Amino acid sequence: MLAAYCTGKETIEVRETPDPQPPAGEVLIRIRSCGICGSDLHFYHGDFPASPKTSPGHELSGEIAALGEGVEGWSVGDRVAVEPVRRCDNCGYCRSGRYHLCPKRILTGSYHNGGLAEYFTFPAYGLYRMPDEMDFEIAALAEPLAVSVHGLHIVNVTAGDRVLVLGSGTIGVLAVLAAQVAGAEVVATYRYEHQAEAATRAGASRVVKDGETAGLETEGFDVVVETIGGSAPTLSQALGIVRPGGRVSVLGIFSQATPIHALGLVLKEVTVVGGITYCRPGIRSDFDTALSILDQHGERVRSMVTHRYPLSEAAAAFATAADKSSKSLKVQVNP
């Protein structure tokens, strides 16, 4: 089969590799759509070390091509979205549904082959059946939406809350959708006009351009969701904007230490919570909630998929995803 690999800084190679075989408890999945995530771009840019022997990609959907020994409840041809966190499934974190904190967790595409390939294998516990009317493109958005759903549940966003989302990239736009569906009033900030349009379609009642946010601290936001990360001063900005007693959800991946106004944190008694991937906080997992939202509201965010490439053009796909002047938002590779 063909698979893509990050072999150096801003270098993607597509090459032939042996077809994988599903071990016991896992299935072989024929990849139909795989999105390029912001974290993939961190590896691409050399911010994080990338293994040249590991295919990236964890926002994926496809269909089952073969079953490993012991897999029950699934059949060849079933269409699935994949919750791509491998875990031990036995420790206290896993048993309590907080498997995203498992000490043996591995995000697919980082240290285990991911979805930028024609096929890959994954444990059956991470499979979610796609709704009948959902296509692979929308299903591949379930993973980033689950990140946003998780970011809202850790700060207990409920109907009637006023929520500010900092950043209208993929996670930001999907946080807008999830918060609006939950009954919150949502405002979002943006850098590029195409991001503003996407946030508005997703349900933002208002969008505010970066650099024009003066005055937001007087609007009484119950929750601020930070989705930018990098080296941006957005964590301090969130603390300044959120109301006293409010909550801040941090979803952006910061590439360096970021300062915060600790005295303001204390005086305002703000709750700041970092969010990583997703879990099962109750009967339903964040991922299951994300799929349900997409089943009902997927067309509101389809325009987020701005570019589509075949696997053979994975290098061009990464270059496009990294170049915001291309008006890229979500770039998907369709093997």
Describe the overall structure.
With 335 residues, this protein is of the alpha/beta class. Helix content is 25%, strand content 27%. The chain is built from ten helices and 17 strands. Strands 3, 4, 5, 8, 9, 16 and 17 form a seven-stranded mixed sheet that branches. Strands 12-11-10-13-14-15 form a six-stranded parallel sheet, with helices on both faces. It has a two-stranded antiparallel ribbon with strand order 1-2. The chain is globular.
Secondary structure blueprint with pairings:
Layout: E1 2-8, E2 11-16, E3 26-35, H1 38-44, E4 59-67, E5 79-82, E6 85-86, H2 92-95, E7 106-107, E8 119-123, E9 127-129, H3 136-139, H4 142-153, E10 162-166, H5 170-181, E11 185-190, H6 193-202, E12 206-209, E13 221-226, H7 234-241, E14 242-250, H8 262-268, E15 271-274, H9 286-297, E16 305-309, H10 314-322, E17 330-333
Parallel strand pairs: 10-11, 10-13, 11-12, 13-14, 14-15, 16-17
Antiparallel strand pairs: 1-2, 3-4, 3-8, 3-17, 4-5, 5-9, 6-7
